[in-house]
């Protein structure tokens, strides 16, 4: 009788253990599914926000003045970018006091200026002219806006919070050589990995490589000025 009881007990314990294993596996599967769905929802929300910001840029480094006219500043920039008066894009401009999401330098004596274009291609053309001047070592500065100072004026796309964080982390990785290039196009972040010519869109920090030591992957302390 004792042997039968022990056998039944052991069999019951095996069934219980198997049941626990199955339940644990099911719970892990549910957790993985929920996590995947949450990631998809977060990515979708970020994509919707990116699309909403697709016509916007942020300008930093312009001191705030009483009774200032932001549209006059914009027209002065258009003159510097060699727009014809009949080809100047239509925009809406305003100051905002809190740094939202654009990856541009700020100044303690100024707040960023938000510019919204009527058309996205007009925004892209405006940014292209800005970067063209940079490549020609003729960067936009306050003198072009009528100030006496020659401090730089920085312009960049208005990024979502998620994409701003991705860009910030990607630039850190580029400085240590973990990434070859970091670019922003239409509010999305693209990177190139070393020895790879393909641009890869990055929608999550988890897609970035882990941070390396200061010597970088090749033993060289590589630094790159990726700021606009």
UniProtKB/TrEMBL annotation:
UniProt biased composition (Polar residues): 215-228
Location of the region described as Disordered in the Swiss-Prot/TrEMBL record: 201-228
Name the record gives this protein: Putative kiritsubo-4 aae
Organism, as annotated: Corethrella appendiculata
High-level lineage: Eukaryota, Metazoa, Ecdysozoa, Arthropoda, Hexapoda
């Amino acid at each position: 009788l004792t042997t039968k009881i022990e056998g039944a007990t052991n069999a019951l314990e095996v069934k219980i253990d198997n049941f626990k294993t199955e339940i644990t596996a099911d719970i892990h599967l549910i957790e993985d599914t929920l996590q995947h769905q949450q990631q998809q929802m977060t990515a979708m929300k970020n994509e919707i926000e990116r699309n909403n910001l697709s016509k916007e840029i942020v300008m930093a480094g312009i001191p705030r003045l009483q009774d200032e006219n932001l549209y006059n500043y914009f027209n002065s920039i258009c003159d510097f970018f060699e727009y014809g008066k009949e080809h100047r894009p239509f925009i809406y401009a305003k100051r905002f006091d809190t740094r939202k999401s654009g990856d541009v330098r700020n100044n303690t004596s100024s707040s960023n200026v938000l510019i919204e274009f009527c058309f996205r291609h007009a925004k892209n053309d405006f940014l292209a002219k800005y970067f063209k001047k940079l490549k020609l070592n003729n960067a936009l500065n306050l003198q072009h806006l009528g100030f006496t100072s020659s401090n730089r004026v920085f312009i960049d796309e208005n990024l979502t919070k998620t994409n701003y964080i991705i860009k910030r982390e990607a630039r850190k990785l580029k400085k240590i050589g973990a990434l070859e290039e970091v670019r922003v196009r239409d509010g999305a972040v693209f990177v190139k990995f070393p020895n790879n010519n393909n641009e890869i869109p990055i929608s999550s920090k988890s897609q970035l490589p882990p941070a390396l030591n200061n010597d970088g992957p090749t033993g060289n302390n590589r630094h790159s000025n990726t700021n606009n």
